[in-house]
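Protein modeling request. Please complete all fields; requests missing the sequence field cannot be processed.
Requester role: graduate student
Desired output: 3D structure, token encoding
Chains: 1
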Amino acid sequence: MSIRLYATLVACVAMTGCASIVNDSTNPVRFETYGANGTEIKDAECKYENDYGMQVVKTPATVNVRRSSKDLQITCVKAGESDGRGVAISRANAGMAGNIIFGGGIGAIIDHNKGTAYTYPMWVQVVMGKLLTFDRRADVEGQPNRGVEMPTPVAVK
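Delivered output (157 residues):
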């Protein structure tokens, strides 16, 4: 590799974030809702939000969610059902690792601030009446992330 090409490559990496180049500002997330007995509940209204805003979708649906370093808060409602809630954990993706490995400190800061260095789980199944945490580390290609049930907070008297 010539010195000129190498210098150009280094300058490009230093001026922009690696994740900004390889990742869009959104990532697709599939939302589904289920009852405690395991049956799918269609047309539940799910609100999901992070620091970039809030949107509402009827399940089942796949939507492009704005990437962020903040977790995605999910609340699903349907008449006759207890509300289902979830937290989709935001995890750093390979773009952030590329910034760190190749010394793009400025790029890492840019990607962190833009949210492009983070990804949410690809397919979440909210269970009505429960609070679940969905971690992208548990994602398996082509399979839903069923989440982990969180203990219900006890009211302080």
